[in-house]
Amino acid sequence: MEEDKYDLYIPMGLKEKNEYWDGFGKDEAIKTLITVGISTLIDVFIYFITKNIVLCSVVFLTSIGGSIMFFVKDTTNLSAYNQICNMINFAKSQKKYEYKSLDELK
């Protein structure tokens, strides 16, 4: 009976912030809106060059879907954007450590 009193319960899958749907919260929505805004400017530039509405519509809708997929977090709480940032930070980090051994017994 005493052993049951000290069981530790650790809840799994708790999120720190509210999300609109699983893996997509306010921060991801802001990043998506910025990305869609930039791609819309590029889309308007493409329209002035080609005058093709179908191409511009496809580029616009693809940019919305692609940016949402790029910023949605999975079960490990990482998005594709976070994984790319982690890879870049790892590539920049020091990987070779040169040590000089000293005779410490003297």
Overview in brief:
The chain is mostly helical and 106 residues long. The chain has helices at 2-5, 26-50, 53-71, 80-92; strands spanning 19-21, 24-25.
Proportion of helical residues: 55-70%
Biggest β-sheet description: 2 strands, antiparallel
- Give me the count of strands: 2
The run of helices and strands is: HEEHHH
Determine Rg (CA atoms, Å). Answer: 24 Å
Question: Total helix count?
Answer: 4
Strand order of the largest sheet: 1-2
Query: Average pLDDT, to the nearest integer?
Result: 85
What are the segments in which pLDDT stays under 50 over at least 5 consecutive residues?
none
Shape category:
flat
Distance between the termini: 57 Å
Structural class: mainly alpha
Strand content: under 5%
Organism: Sporanaerobacter acetigenes DSM 13106
Keywords: Membrane, Transmembrane, Transmembrane helix
Transmembrane segments: 29-48, 53-72
Protein name: PrgI family protein
Notes on the protein architecture:
The chain crosses the membrane at residues 29-48, 53-72. It comes from Sporanaerobacter acetigenes DSM 13106. Keywords: Membrane, Transmembrane, Transmembrane helix. This is PrgI family protein. The protein has a domain at 19-91. The chain has helices at 2-5, 26-50, 53-71, 80-92; strands at 19-21, 24-25. It is flat. Helix 2 packs antiparallel against helix 3 (53-71). It is built from four helices and two strands; from the N terminus they run αββααα. It is mainly α. It has a two-stranded antiparallel ribbon with strand order 1-2.
